[in-house]
Amino acid sequence: MAAVHWNRRGVAMLGLVVTFLPVPARGRRHDALLPDGVCGNREAMLEASRVGKAMLQQSLAAGMPWGDESLNEYVNRLGQNLARSSGSQQVFSFYLIYNHEVNARSFPGGYIVIYSGVISLAESEAELASVLSHEIAHENACDWGPVPTKDNLIELLSLVPGMVFWGPAGLAIVAGSGWAGRLLRARVSRSAEQRADRLAAQYLVRAGYDPRAAVQFFQRLQAQQERLGGEPGGLLATHPQASERRKKLEKIVPSLPPPEFALHDEAEFLRMRQAVRNYDEMYARLVGVPWPGQDVPPPKLSRRPPPPSSR
What we know:
globular; 3-stranded mixed sheet
């Protein structure tokens, strides 16, 4: 799946229509953490939160945080509801980055970053909720692994470019760090991803969503990946393929109880998704890159020719 190719001209143009300012987490205290015994003692959790916050700031600095307060508030509210339904005692913060890639990240301490490409691809709030629930499941399962010490903070931050911009260049950066093997085994192992998918399906049921939405989202993701040249695989594959994850979920969903009743405002989701798709189309026209879901870039915007001068 092709990532967005940002260039100076495109960023400058898009800056005219979007104010990319990070939205602060709401009501978060520095010491608001999991109780002892969940993912470590209090000191370990404090250190994990410091590391996670530094990694979040690196991720936001490397990306383009969404400046629309209403969309940030919607994503945060949806994420908080899902976190409560999961039964987690963790304090979560959700951030939205403008990026066509269908992706999301979780960092130690309950910091979750979601790319706008997820919203653009989703066809329902339940599908968006399935992605957020997956990242919440990583946090609840402590998938970020052993907490590094302060001495390892700078070394660990060197992995962020590789995590945010995964590819040959990112792998080269990650390979130079002594933490690479430990972090990759802990955070992006295929078994951890599959466990997070199972937990996310359960969270959806508790929050009143049909867990089949996760299956439908993977079907859509698989179709997009195939249209863009095939699913990622081989040595560089850090996640199971979308088709593999879909098949496993199809076996799990029938065994889950019916979703608990809950009211969801689907109209709000559709408004928020349309806002993202509007920016997608505008960016594609300004910069000349393929619009998500399209094989070729749309024609660039052109100015109306000036009227002929009268003599």
